[in-house]
Design brief:
The complex is a heterodimer of chains A (129) and B (203). With 129 residues, chain A is an all-alpha fold. Helix content of chain A is 74%, strand content 0%. In chain A, helix 3 packs antiparallel against helix 4. Chain A is flat. The N and C termini of chain A lie far apart (59 Å). Helix content of chain B is 78%, strand content 0%. Chain B has 6 helices and no strands. Chain B is elongated, with a radius of gyration of 19 Å. Classes of the chains: A mainly alpha (129), B mainly alpha (203).
Chain lengths: 129, 203
Amino acid sequence: MAKKNKSKQAVVRKEVPINEPPVMSGAVMARRPHAQSIKLPMVAFVSSIMLTAFSFLAAAYAIASEAQVARWFVIAFILFLALFQAIIQLFVWMHLKDKGHGVPIFGIAMGFFVALTCVLAGTVWSWLY
Amino acid sequence: MATAHTATHEIEKATLEGRNKVLAFWLFLGGECVLFGTLFATYLTLRNSVMPGGPTSQQLFDLMLVAWATFLLLTSSLTSVFAVQAMHRGRVSTMLAWLGVTVWLGLGFLALEIYEFQHYVHLGHGFTASAFSTAFYSLVGFHGAHVVFGILWISLLMAQVARKGITDVTGPKVYVASLYWHFVDVVWVFIFTVVYLFGVLGV
């Protein structure tokens, strides 16, 4: 649908007020590209809360347990949880899962790649010297 | 499908300008990634450089405070999803209400952070106390500055939408502001992991 209107709407640039709630006939509802449900964002929210809780509990457990070996494992574990949570939020809340997000995914991936390079360079440098 | 109400769905993609705005904003977020990456790198390199007798991360950080701050920011990210969904349905007042909740939760996060920072300063953890403190305030403070900017931005957008309604000009602005707000939350996920949880673990 959006494609069909593309050329027309690109030329006609005027503000269309649409403050009225749309009248949804059955046909219009069925033709909506992907009806937005409240479910998936809520699943992402509950997942994020749980992943956060696991991270905090893992850290609290490691402090209580004293063992140094456990700490390195906990660090890897909470880093993985953080990355997982970030990916969930990027793809669900920020719509990267939706169609036509190839360039945004490329852009943010390149940003993350450079950021990770900086972080690795900094940490490896401080280990070596 | 050229009727007015079909435009209510994903209004941020209704014009070429709107689509370009969203695309360019993603490239900006890629740049923001790099910016925060350098601050994370600085922090990770200097986090153990504490002056003799100065407070360490293990003495300073309080997990309960961080947990509450995380909860507030995470919830505000969800409410901005609700705001965009209301916008896609063309419901102005619902959208404004959710944006208002988002701003209030952001203010709550900010209040916790301000309390936290002034508490640290009283414990001898000022900006110039050590390489650790400077790197800490640079990273966490820069994120806090992003929250401040987001609150101002969304508040101004609320005022504009209240006057103009959801149009193909204001729609992309709200969408892009919500992307920004989500990104600030994503950065916080790494801050609570790398700064606070690593900090209490003392690694």
